[in-house]
Amino acid sequence: MSGAFSIENDEKSCNKSHDLDFSSNVYLSSFSPVSTALDCPWLVCEVKIGESCIPGLIDTGAAFSFVDYGLIDKRNIRNCQTLTFNAANSSPLYTVGKVEGSVRVAGEVIRSQFYVAKNLIHNAIIGRDVLKTIRAKIDFKGNLISSDYKKEIASLELKLTGANISTSLGKSQVREVTDLLNRYERVFAKSEWDIGRTDVCKHSIPTGKYLPTAARCYRIPLSLEKHVDSEIEDMLKAGIIRPSKSPWRAPITLPKKKDGSHSFCTDFRILNEKILRDQYPLPEIQQIFAKIAGRRFFTSLDLQKAYWQIEICEEDKEKTAFSPGYGKGIYEYNVMPFGINNAPATCQRLMDSILEDEKNAIAYINDVIILSDDFNSHLKHVARVLKL
């Protein structure tokens, strides 16, 4: 499952530091998610209602603030007119009353009224009513929130609990899963360019006695030149590539994706013909199915741009050189690029070495499957993998 952490419960079916970042999208599902996962971590602050401290999702799209019915003392609920709100996906949100609580955000603690909802998929939602009261200003890029009251700037806590809730997991189980994810949030990528770098291995490009080859560059349509410039700038900033004076050179291609945008790809076909093949075996699908058979709980983890988390041996970096064409310069990869021979073998060898002692985890290149017989054991197995 690309870009997703997934916990699936099928009731009917039979300390190293590797700096490997997992994708931050999270699904809690039973084979099919009930809604679309968020593309980024959520912004969270502290809500206190009675004696309960609850993490509240800051939602600038919500006009009012809400709290989940199952988390509060029912004696504190003040009856009011039953109202129905529409969620972002147009599904109805039914309220049963109001409750008073406090919110701590940007150094401010204010009292606020919360609508109590029975079918809320978050613990609490902090809407514009609270944000307006403290005159909050949110910097989403820097994950900062400021309040005009004290001119104080606080860092927003990033939570990785963007979960699609399934009927197959009980509410307490969902909380245990989200608590686990939050406990290990450091291993999840916060953005597209939040990419780890492992020191366990490096990728080599053995070309034997072959001499360098410079391939002809392909013409870039004028309409896509800005896209190419932007991609190169992003990769330079992230340390994925660096300027090069290499005698090797590959062209780039810009294949169109289903959504109409264009991928930035390096055409390594000529280089690939000269690379000595790494014969490290990949798992066969039947082997994976055999290991999964009979298990009830599964988690899949997808490494964030896994190839880019593996550095290339310094002496081989020049072999990955590419150029978009005249006036665009020439660059080489610092990390293992997509489309190059032996990359799957290098990634598989790395994952096998990391998971060598984990009997409840299987890796297939950049995907990890964790499997267990019961829920409590599964939480422990997931935690063990996230600790690696």
From TrEMBL:
Q: Which Pfam families match?
A: RVP (PF00077), RVT_1 (PF00078)
Q: Which UniProt keywords apply?
A: Hydrolase
Q: Where is the Retropepsins domain?
A: 44-138
Stored InterPro entries? DNA/RNA_pol_sf (IPR043502), Peptidase_aspartic_dom_sf (IPR021109), Retropepsins (IPR018061), Rev_trsase/Diguanyl_cyclase (IPR043128), RNA-dir_DNA_polymerase (IPR053134), RT_dom (IPR000477)
Q: Which GO terms describe its molecular function?
A: hydrolase activity
Tell me where on the tree of life, at the top rank, the source sits.
Eukaryota
Where does the Reverse transcriptase domain lie?
A: 257-386
Name the PANTHER family for this protein.
REVERSE TRANSCRIPTASE DOMAIN-CONTAINING PROTEIN, TRANSPOSON TY3-I GAG-POL POLYPROTEIN
**Name this polypeptide is given:** Retrovirus-related Pol polyprotein from transposon gypsy
Organism of origin is: Thelohanellus kitauei (Myxosporean)
